[in-house]
Records
---
Amino acid sequence: MEVILMKELLEANDKLAEENRAYFSSRHLLAVNLMGSPGAGKTTLISAVARELPDIPVGVIEGDIASSIDAESLTKQGIPSSQINTRGECHLDSRVIRQGADRIDMRDGIVFIENVGNLICPAEFDLGENIRLLAASVPEGDDKPFKYVPMFSYADAVVLTKCDLRDAVGFDGPNFLRGLRAVSQAPVFEVSLKKGRDGEGIGAVAAYLREQYEALATGPREN
Amino acid sequence: MRPLLWLLLFRDPRGRNGPRGPGRKRMGRMGMHELPVVLDIIRVADEAAEKNGFRKITKIDLVIGELSSIVDESVQMYFEIAAKDGPCSGAELVFEHRPALLKCRDCGRTFPHAKSFCCPVCGGDSVLVKGTGREFYIRSVDGQT
C-alpha cells in the first residue's frame, strides 16, 4: 500500500538554520556565509573587509576540516574568531554554527561564517545566514560558473579574487560573466589583495556589506 | 550564446553518463553528507511504517532536484547498510529527478530545463530561476502489513 508523505529531507538542518537566523537577528548580526574553493582567498578577504570597516564589529566562525591556522591568524589581527573542525565533513551545517556563535558571543556587527573550502557541498546547506558570498579566484579559471552551477546559482554576491593574475593565467572575464549570468544576477566585485599591499577593489565589497548591515531590521534586540 | 557552451551547463552532476558509460557506479566522490540524509530517510520511513501498521517498507520514492548535490549512488550505498535489520531492509529506492526552471529573457515564459537553454516557444536565451532544481524530499513509501 502506498502512503504519500511529501516530507522534506535535510529538514533537521533547515530547522536549525531558522533557529540560527532568529539568533543572528536578535543580536543585530549580519551573518555572511563565505564559500569558495580551498585557497580562493576567503580568509584574506575577511581580514581586508574588517580593516575597511573599522566602525563595525567583525567576528568569524571559522570552518576547516582540521587545524586552527585561520582562527589563530584572525585572532592575532584582533578579529574575534572561533574555530570549528569538521573532522572530514566537507561543509559546515547548521548544527555547528550555534556553537561557534556562542563562543564569539557577538552582540552587534558582521559575523563571517567561513565555510570549508569546497565549491560543491556548501551550496546544499542553509546555515541561517543573511548573505551567501562566494569567493572565486582568477587562477581557478573563467569556466567555473559553467561547471559548478549549484554553487554559482546559490551565491547572493561573488567576489572575484586575485585579479592581478588575470594576464598570467589568461582569464577571460566576459566568459566568466556569461557563465555566471546564465544562472545568477549576483553582483561581482573584483579584488586584488596581495600580501603587504593595499587591497584593490576591497572598498566596493565593504560598501556592499555595510549596506546589508545597515538594512538589518532594527527591531527589539537581545541585550 | 553558442549552443555548445550551454551543453556544458547541467552536465549530469552525478556522472551517471560520464566517460565510463551509463549505469556505471561512480566511485569518485565519497558522498559523506548522504549518510545523515539516509538516516533521515530511514527514520521517516520507519515512522510511516509504525503509523500505518506496516511490517515492512517495500519502496521509497525520493524526489531530487537537478541542482541538489545529493548523489543517488551514495544514498543507495548508505541505505543498504543502514537499513539492515529494520523495516526498511531490502526496500527499493526510486529516484525521481526534477529539473531546474528557466525563464526566457525575451518572452518571459518559465519552462523546465530539458537539454537546452533555448525557450521552447520563442527560441530566446534563458536564465535559471533562482532556487529551483533544489528539491529534496520523500514523496511516498510503499509498505506491507
---
Amino acid sequence: MRIRIEKRPIPSRLVSVLTLLLSLLLALIVGGILLKAVKADPIKTYRAMALGAFGSRYSLSETLVKAIPLMLCGLAVSVAFRMLFWNIGAEGQLAMGGIAAAGVALFLPPRAPHLPSWLLLLLIAIVGFMAGALWGLIPALLKAYIRVNEIITTLMLNYIAILLVEYLFYGPWKDPKGYGFPGTAEFPPVAWLPRLPGTRVHLGLLFALLAAIFIWAVLSRTKWGYEIRVIGENPRAATYAGISLVRNILLIMWLSGGLAGLAGMAEVTGIAHRLTKGLTVGYGFTAIIVAWLAKLNPWTVLIVSFLLAGLLVGGDQIQITMGLPASVALILQGAILFFMLGAEVFKQYHITIEWRRRSSIHEETGV
Amino acid sequence: MATNTPAVRMTGITKRFPGVLANDHIDFETQPGEIHALLGENGAGKSTLMNILFGIYRADEGEIFVHGRKVRLNSPRDAIKQGIGMVHQHFMLVEVQTVAENVSLGLAESRFFLNLGQTKGRITELAQRYGLQVDPDTRIWQLSVGEQQRVEILKMLYRGADILIMDEPTAVLTPQETKELFNTLRRMAAEGHTIIFITHKLDEVMAISDRITVLRGGRVVSTVCTSETNKEDLARMMVGRPILFQVERIPVEKGDIVLQVENLQAQNDQRLPALKGVCFTVQQGEILGIAGVAGNGQRELAEVITGLRQAIGGCIRINNMDVTNCAPCRIIEKGVSHVPEDRLGMGLVPNLSVSDNIIMKEYRQPKLSYGPFLNRLSIWRFVDRLIKLFDIATPSQETPVKLLSGGNLQRTILAREISALPNLLVAMHPTRGLDVGATESVHKMLLEQRSKGAAILLISEDLDEILALSDHIAVLYEGEIMGILPAEKAGVEKLGLMMAGALREMPPATSPEQCAEPVEGKVS
C-alpha cells in the first residue's frame, strides 16, 4: 500500500464543507463512545444538550449571554492572529478589563453621585478597554523591541491577571457585608449594563456586533487593514515595502487587548455586577478555539461563538437534567476542534491511497 | 550492451497540474555516453519532465524505459536504483556535516554505524577520475558553491548513477568553474555516463551538448544535433519567434551622482563581516553592474542600501543626503526602488492578489486613498493600467500572485517598482530563472529607466547580463570591491579572475573614518 500526498493548489470548497460536516459527525461519535463508557445514552444526551442550549427562549438567551465574552475575545484573538501575533493572553486582558471596570464601578459613583448612568458606563467601558489594551501592550512592547516570544509572555501574564482578580476580591476589595463569600460588593445599579427585558442578555452583545463591524471595515477597507494583511501573509515583504512591524504590533495588541478588556468589563457590569469568581472561567482560552474555527473571519467568529456557547450551556444543562459531568461538553469541544483541525490536511492536500503489493519498482521487460 | 538501446527513453509522457498541461505527450530519448541538453523557457516543462524521470512526480500517461527495460519510478529511491541521479539547482546538502558524511547520507548500505574510511577512499578515487577535486573531510559550509556542486555530483556517482540529470547547473558558477564543470561532464560522458543538462542558456548548450531537445509549452519542438544547429535557430524554436540577443544600449548623458556609497560595512545573518568597506557611486543615467559569485556580499549590499539591513560602518548618500540606517519607508520616499533577489519571499506576498501586490508601496499615496481608507476605485484603475502597461499575464486583478509564472511575477514587481519613478533602482538578479523572452523585456525596461535618467545598481551573477547592460562593472569578492571597470574594457576572463579573488585593481579599503564629506566638484 502506498499513500501519496499532493498539495492542492486551491483548497476545494466542496471538500471544505464535507470535511466540516464529517469532522462534526466524528466528534459526536467519539463523544458518544465516551458517553457510553459512563453508561449514558448518547442520543438522549445530545438531545438534552441541544434543547438545553437552543430549545427555549430562556436557553437561547443564556447561550447568547455566554456567547458575548466569547465573541469579544474571539475577535480580539483573531485580529492579533491575522498579523501572526500569537496572543493567547485574552484571558488575562479580560481579567484586567474586569478589574478596571470594577474599580470604577465600585469607587466612582459614591464620589460622583450625579453622574448619569450612560456617561458612567461609557467611562467604565473606556477604562475597561484601556486596561486590557495596556495589559496587551506589555507583550507587544517586549516583542516589538527585544523580540521576546509573545506566546510565552501573553500566556504568563494571564496567570498574573487572574491571581490579581482573586487577590482583590479575597483581599482589599472584599465585600465587608458579604458573609465571607469571595467577591466585591455589588455595584450600584447606575453601573449596570442595560439588559434585554426578561433576559440576562446585556449591552455587551452590541459591543461585540460593533467590534465585528469595525474589524471587518478595518481589514477590508483601510490602509491599516491592508498593512495587517501584508504582515500576516509575509512579514519580510512588509518590511521591504516600508511597513513598520513595530508600529503595527503595538497597534494590533492595543486593539486586541482592548477588545478582551471590553469583554471583562461587560461581564462584570452586565452579569455579576461585582468582581467575583465567575469572571475568569476560560473565555479567553476558548476564544483561541473560536478564532481558529472561524478562520479569523470576524463574522464567522460571531457564529462560532454562539455555537460554542451553546455547547457550554448545553453541557451545563445535562449536568442538571441527566446527572452527567459538565466536562462532557469540554470533551466534545476538544473532539470537535481536534477533528476540524485534523481535517485541514484534507482541504489542503490531495491524498490517494494505492492498494498495491509492496514491491516499489514494478519492472517489466521492455518492448 | 547494444549501442542502439537508448539509455533513457520516455514515450508519450503527459503530466497535468490543475489548470496546466505541463507535459503533453512528450517523447524523449538519449543515448549512452551522450550529453543531451534539454532546452526550453521557464514553464516549458523541462523540470517537470526530469522530475518525472527522477521519480519526484509521476506521469499521468506515458512510459519510461531505462536501458530498454520498462520501469515504474515512484520515488527518487526507485530512480537511483535504476542508476538515475539528479543534481538540483538548490543543493540538498547538510551544511554542518563533512563531504564524506553527506555522500553516505541515506545510502542503503549505511545502517547505523558509518564506515567513513571506506567512503572517503571511494570519494577520492571518483574525484580523481572525473576531476572533481574536493577534500572528503571538509565541512560543506566551508566549501564554495562550485565545490558544493561537485559534492552533489559525487553523491550521485557514489550511488552508481550512470544517468545524471543536471538542473541548470551553471547558474551559480563563475566562468572558470563552469569550464571545470564542463570538463568533468565531458570526462564522464567519455566513460559512458549519460548526462541530461537542463538549461535555457544557449551559449552553454552550444558549448557542451551533443544533441538538444527543445521544449515549448509542454511539447517537444524538435531534437537536433548540436553540430547541425545554431543559437538563432534554437532561440526561435524555444520562444517561437526571433530574438534579439543584444539589446540596444543607446548612449545616455550622465547626470548628477544619485547613489554614493562610502566605506560601507555590514554583517551577514550569521553576524560575520559581509561588506568590508565598499565604495562606489552611481550617476543618473548610469547602470553600475555588480558582478560576483553568489554569497560575496551582494545581498547584504542591496539590503543595506534599501534600509533592510543595518550598516555597521561607512555611509550611504542618496542625492547627497545621508540615509545610512534610515527606515525602509524613508528610503522609499527618497525615490529608491528595489527589485529583490527573492521574489516570492520578499518582493511579493504570494497569497495576496496581483492588485494587493502592485499597491504594496503606493497604497500610502493620497491618490490611492482617502484618509485612512483605501480608494478602491482608483486602486482598480491604477492596477489595471499597470497590468496593461507591463503586460502582466493574469486572469484577473484578484488572482493570487503565487499562481503567476516567474516572468509575470517579475513583471509585477517591476510594474510596482518602476511606476514609482525611481531616482535609484536597485535590481538584484532581475532575470534569474526567467526565460529568454521575459529576460529581453526586463532588460528593455531597465535600459528605459536608464534613458529616463534613473541610476541603476544591477546586481547579478549572470556575467552576460552585466556585460550587456552596464556602463561600469564592479566586482564584489568577499565583501570587497576588487575593481570598477568601464564595461567596454571588461572582458569575461578578467572579470572571472576578479570574481575568484585572483586579481585586484582597487586598493583594499583602509580609511576607518565614518562618513567623509562629499567630494567637492563631483556633486553639482
